[in-house]
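Protein Record: Sequence and Backbone Structure Tokens
======================================================

Structure line: whole-number tokens from a learned vocabulary of local backbone shapes, matched to residues.

Purpose: to set a sequence beside its fold so the mapping can be learned.

___
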Amino acid sequence: MELKQKSFLILVAIIIGIGIGIFIWNLLGSVVAKGVFYYKIDGDKADLFSAKDSNTKKILSVSAREIDPGDFRPPKRNYISHDRKNIIYFKQVDEKPLENQENPELIAYRVIYESMLVNLRNKKETKINQSIDSASLVFSPDDNQIAWIKQIDEATYQEIETSGGKRELWISKTNGDDAKLLASFDENLILLEVWSGDYIYFQGLWDVNNRSMGRINIKTKEIENMVPRQCEEFLGNCQNIEFSPTGNKFLYEIYTKKDDKDITALYLGDFDKKEFLEVLTTDQISDRLWLDDEERFFYTEQSLVKRGDGTAEMDTRETVHVVDIKNQIDDKIYSGSYISQLTLDLVKRYLYFLEKEKNGENFNLNRLDLKTKEVKTILTENYNKILLIQ
């Protein structure tokens, strides 16, 4: 009887221990998941930080990009999983001079990258053994797979067209295993935007003035292209397309001139309903950011203002707006100089962004409390040394 009682107590202790372990694991995971991520350069390394509420925490260091000897920048392309547990970044490993340049005196280089998968909990870094185009990758809704465009050897639109090659869309496990070809595209460049449900949404480019947008069904492999209202057939006048978290809704801009003044009309499109709505008209928009409910989005309106120092010099001023589509409300929530990289935390309480400091050339990483409108500066740094990850 005593032996049975001891065995029972040991079993209870094990169960409690497992429960505590799971609780701590989930707690630590949620701390990482609820914040936003940003890189800050330290020497030849890019330190990845998590910012949550008033706290910042260094998670790990990865290799930085070397632009010029001694000049390092954050990794150019970064993709974070929906659950905030993994990040894929592209590590610069080599560069090769480009041949057949139109101007032989101009020397250009093609940068060679390796794709790296990083587990943000245990900081383990693993090379993905696939040739992935650094500009095109999305996680599946459950984060168990990734879709990506295969890297090609051609470096310019002219070389791609001459070779007659296709841009290939592949799907694999997150670590690159079990890769399967899904589709091939005629466009010279494919930018994957969102993987939602059975659809992967994308933008395509033949060249700067000829583009496409659409989605592909991963089960039927059927490609559905879209030409939004007021856009030309090859979207030459349709700019800055921003897909919502599900991909079904999207924002786009149409530029016109009136009395020698540039006018930007911002439209809302719906893939399923094939409906298009002009949301607002303004001078110039620099950033756009969807909220997860797809009923609201942020944008920054850009304008020129006098410096106020008695000279004719002008400064760039940006005002952050939040638009409630359903209730047709456009609220101004913050104004500043050279605002960029709008990033929202998962609990939708804080908006993070970079803003040029008032007296100096560096930029502040700011956090705006959307309830109180209080702004906190997290750090001040050279613009090229910081990168927010959305």
About this structure: The chain has a mean pLDDT of 84. The longest helix spans residues 2-34.
